[in-house]
Structures are given as C-alpha cells and as structure tokens.
Amino acid sequence: MADIEVRAYATLIKYLPGLDLKEGKKISVKEGLTIQGLLNQIGIPEKETKIIIVNGVHVDLSYLLKNGDRVAIFPPVAGGAK
Question: Which Pfam family, an example, fits this chain (predicted)?
Fold first, then answer.
C-alpha cells in the first residue's frame, strides 16, 4: 500500500469529503496505482480534470503512484480579460 496526500480544487472539492484545504486528504492506495486509477477510486470523472501535479511536477494519467506522493488535482478553468 502507498499512503498519499490528495488535494482537489474548485469544483472538484465535492469528491473528497472531509478534505482539509491546508493538509489535503490522506488516502491509502495500492502501490503502483495510476492517476487514472486514483480518479476512478475517488470518483472524479476524468473529463472534470485538467491539470494533475504530483510532488510539484505536472504528470499524465499513466503516472504510477508511490508512497509519500502529494497529488493536486485541478479542473479546467476559464476567465480573464475581454
């Protein structure tokens, strides 16, 4: 098993009940689980994600999770000046 810290932002917060915005949520997953597998496990639809950061580095859905990883999941965002 791998103990990881997961943070979700904006519209994705609803998928992590009990999320502490400062500390993230501690989750135990099977070592070697992919980011895609993590999304499936916590119920976040892939289409609702845009950026995945692990330990400060942008990764894709095939990244293999390991013990101690810190995962941040961001939805698509829009806005700005006209």
Answer: ThiS
